[in-house]
Amino acid sequence: MTKFTRLQIQLHWLTLVLIAVTYAAMELRGWFPKSSAAYLFMRETHYNAGIVVWLLMFLRLWLRHRYPEPDIVPPPPRWQMKAGRVMHIVLYITFLALPLLGIALMAFNGKSWIFLGLTISPFATPDPLVKSVLKNIHETLGNAGYFFIAFHAAAALLHHYVQKDNTLCRMLPDHNKPI
């Protein structure tokens, strides 16, 4: 096998798009007054896209264990293989933890929120101190996510353009096949 499965490739790029939407909604909501419809839309988009990313990460993990990883040709040095494994673990942990932290943050904030049109009531006793700690962790990990994504993309480009191996090509869709 020279590439990841078609489903793995599609979910990889869908996850990237939804992470971008999540980050963009978070950044753009600051442009609007807090109670405006645009602010609320951005806030709900951030929540919903984040939770969908969380669900996709579980599906991707399952697929990752179900199908063998295609070989990198020519094989990179052993230290790069280990570094790549560590980076993938960091990415999975980050994008599994961020939505959970966000949900906990909402619960300890004591406010209901909307997930895909359903109102989710707080399920924990409001606690400003816990909320503050969760918010700091969520924001710090979210900011670190920018760097993790950038490093992941830079490594893929380095493999493609400098090392000239198939690392990036394994995750690119076949343009000759219909979707």
TrEMBL record:
The main location class comes to membrane
| Gene Ontology MF: a single term | electron transfer activity
Keyword Nucleotidyltransferase, does the record have it? no
Question: Which biological processes are named by the entry's GO terms?
Answer: respiratory electron transport chain
Compartments, record wording = Cell membrane
Cofactors needed by this protein, per the record, are:
heme b
Q: How does it sit in the membrane?
A: Multi-pass membrane protein
Q: Which Pfam families match?
A: Ni_hydr_CYTB
Keyword field contains Transferase: no
- Keywords linked to the UniProt accession: Cell membrane, Electron transport, Heme, Iron, Membrane, Metal-binding, Transmembrane, Transmembrane helix, Transport
Entry's transmembrane regions: 7-26, 46-63, 89-108, 144-162
Q: PANTHER family given for it?
A: CYTOCHROME B561, CYTOCHROME B561 HOMOLOG 1
Q: Which family does it belong to?
A: Belongs to the cytochrome b561 family.
Q: State what protein this is by name.
A: Cytochrome
